[in-house]
Q: What sequence folds into this?
């Protein structure tokens, strides 16, 4: 496909994102990579110091089963649909914070009209030349504690890479 379009430096690969060799990738794109596959793609981008990472996540089940709403929100989040939407927001918000911790500037936006898909958040991350967001790790840990999150796949991958604890909180 890339060759027929005249893009000699572009390659497409089929397989499990965690198993793909992303060596030398300068742009990583994950469109509707289900659940933790989005984290695997983001991790590949971070590990290769990709200049740009674009992710349009879907399926946020990893955190959904872990969330324990703070007491102040328990009345609102007792409804499964509200808890699911909160899981989506927290999952993608954590991804953005983690990317910022790793030195990327991030932006989140709707990229498709909601009439086409409810999963329409795009996380864009551009590797920066300046320092990483200094408070990101603290904020991530506070979110884990607030919502009872004990494991986040991207956080675990990065911690395993650095040799620190792979659990969230």
A:
């Amino acid at each position: 496909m890339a060759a027929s379009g005249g893009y000699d430096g572009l390659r497409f690969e089929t397989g499990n994102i965690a198993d793909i060799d992303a060596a030398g990738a300068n742009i990583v794109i994950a469109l509707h990579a289900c659940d933790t596959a989005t984290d695997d793609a983001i991790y590949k981008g971070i590990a290769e110091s990709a200049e740009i990472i674009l992710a349009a996540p879907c399926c946020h089940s990893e955190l959904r089963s872990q969330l324990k709403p703070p007491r102040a929100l328990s009345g609102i989040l007792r409804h499964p649909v509200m808890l699911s939407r909160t899981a989506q927001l927290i999952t993608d918000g954590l991804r953005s914070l983690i990317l910022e911790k790793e030195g990327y500037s991030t932006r989140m936006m709707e990229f498709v009209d909601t009439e086409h898909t409810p999963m329409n958040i795009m996380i864009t991350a551009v590797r920066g030349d300046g320092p990483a967001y200094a408070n990101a790790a603290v904020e991530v840990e506070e979110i884990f504690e607030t919502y009872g999150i004990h494991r986040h796949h991207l956080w675990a991958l990065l911690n395993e890479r650095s040799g620190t604890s792979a659990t969230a909180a």
In short: The chain has one domain: 26-162. The two ends are 44 Å apart (CA to CA). The beta strands are 27-34, 52-58, 104-110, 121-127.
